[in-house]
């Protein structure tokens, strides 16, 4: 049946239909009645946009941006928006009419709808308010008008929500929200948590925008005067002056496919537009206040309050999250404990993101035992680690020095198909560096670079420093070359580390090559560089070359410092040149700086070998008081000097201290068994 035919039929049967509506007026609810007194057919729940299939169409083409429909007033300035309103209105009214008159055939129902729509559009064309329309119209009963106003309000609310969702889509793509999401991604936030944060930030931006829009609207209304203010009415139709040209998207919407579309839209809407927590009143509100003010050590009381809260409120996930948000604001110390208790609640619908938030909180507070307990719960409940949680574990284990667990979490992260970000790579590389495994750190750095994540200069320098301390010149050269290929100019610090790496293995020629290249780059040698070169010459006992270098540097204005003098003291001490050593110690004292602690090892060794018992034992007492700072090589040198100086008992005592510190003393024990010719002792 065409629209023209239906319209023609409705004019002849209009009075008859109205009589039918009047005779069944009890079926339609009065707007003044409570919902509890409504007939059964109105008790069915009405969803917002899901009750009409037209919400599946692009709404930006139907709703003018200026449209702002509320329960008090609505102004429709666009024909497409009017069509949208009428189409939604017909869709809902069809269900109500069919439920009220189940025995009527389709033609009769269509006729009723045409009659209602004609009356509604007439009121819209006149721009009349609700009270004027309901009291001034004798065509429909008051109860029927009440149903019309109810459906009209429902449609306006739906269209307003559609408008807000369209605005929300725009704010989701705004640059500020994108920038915050990019930053969140860089710090390791991924998956559902990042998605929730993005919607939260977009919603906040939208609310801020609407707030300022409201202020501007209030300013304009105050300029216009009282006539421009909204009337305080409960329900209404969209007001409009002039003839309405409209096209209702099919009074024939009985195809089952529209119901399937509506269901899909409803599911999508629940994800896109989060639910609001229900109001908590009465005793439940009192219990909630007690939870928020509870003490951290009252576990039993807290659990009892949570159980009572469940019984009174029957909370869903929305109410639980609202409770946690309030806890975070009002009682942050209790937040983690309550959040962990709630994980066991079925109504909370626990997922991996909830575990992630707690693990992240505990990890930042260095609560490693709490993290392990949560991980055990995750395994027991069959919840697998996600990328965000694995990233947090990598940072935590690296910080705590648990390299095996850090590597396990890192491999889990890669096994999930997720490329580690810069922060994860940085934590792992630094963990390898601190553990004395720069080669593994270098391997990760290559993997990092191949994944289009550029290592920073700090990472290169940390690896170079570690290779240098180990005397791994090949590794140090590789890192230095990689730095230059990455666009980092070789710094004075890098040159110094290369010199020290070669000094460590006793290669003065390569050390001198790096030293000369540093000068070529325009850097002036400092005390540390000179000390590195002197140490390189000391390994080969090239004293003449060392003195020649010092004279050359002094001619260029260089003044030796504590580092250079300390290397010379160690070298001359091995040669047992006591007077020269004491002169250098005097120069160090004039500089006003204390010599390095490890220099005491050299002095103890020297004085013991020359037989100066007083000074040897005096320095030995200093070394014993700081035995935790001594390494295996230091203990071996001290014991060797004491043995050669004839201080057997002191050597045995230091040997026992060495073993107590966890070092292997088998090598020095063999020397203790050998007969030793005593040197003449000086007192």
TrEMBL record:
PPR repeat placement: 351-385, 386-420, 421-455, 526-560
PROSITE patterns: PPR (PS51375)
Pfam short name (any one): PPR_3
Superkingdom in the source lineage: Eukaryota
InterPro entries to which the protein is assigned, alphabetical: PPR_rpt, TPR-like_helical_dom_sf
Gene3D superfamilies, per database record: Tetratricopeptide repeat domain (1.25.40.10)
Keywords: Repeat
PANTHER family associated with the record: OS02G0611400 PROTEIN (PTHR46862:SF2), OS07G0661900 PROTEIN (PTHR46862)
This protein's name: Nucleobase:cation symporter-1
Biological source species: Vigna unguiculata
